[in-house]
Amino acid sequence: MIIVLDKYSDLREAINRYLGPIIEYDRKYNGKLLETLKVYLQCNGSKQEAAKRLFIVRQTLYHRMEKLERFLGTDFMEADKRLALELMLKAYDYLMSGGEMHGQRRAALGAE
User: Fold this and answer.
1) How many C-beta neighbours within 10 Å does residue 96 have?
2) pLDDT at residue 95, rounded to an integer
3) Which ranges carry the PucR C-terminal helix-turn-helix domain (predicted)?
4) Computed from CA positions of residues 102, 106, 108, 112, in that sequence, does the dihedral angle turn out positive or negative?
């Protein structure tokens, strides 16, 4: 995790590295992949619980998970990668809620 923070001194750059393709996909197709990823991680990988919290059938969740795996790799639930993703999700939420970001920087991360 420290390597990630050291490599990307700009938080926005780190977020874009980990979540950029997902954010872009959601913006283009209203895919709800970012929300799905957050909930799936909160549910510790339980597909049944994630589908329930998202108010979708499990087949829809499986479809979204396949897309997430294409963007993140099939190993995204491994400890180090999962931790990095969770940190980037928290950072993204922080910046989108007004953190230290305004104007063009918000737009660059997908805020409309």
Assistant:
1) 15
2) 84
3) 33-91
4) negative
Q: How many domains does the chain have?
A: 1
Residue 88 sits in which domain range? 2-108
Give the CATH number, domain containing residue 18. Answer: 1.10.10
pTM: 0.81
CB 29 within 8 A of CB 78: no
Start-to-end CA span in the chain (Å)? 29
Angle between helices 11-29 and 33-42 (to 10 degrees): 120
108 contact partners, CB below 8 Å, separation of at least 6: 12, 16
Tokens of 39: 């909930």
| Mean pLDDT, range 35-39, rounded to an integer | 98
Say what the pLDDT of residue 98 is: 80
Which residue pairs, CB below 8 angstroms and at least 24 apart, start in 19-25? 19/85, 19/88, 19/89, 19/92, 21/71, 22/68, 22/71, 22/72, 23/92, 23/109, 23/110, 24/110, 25/67, 25/71
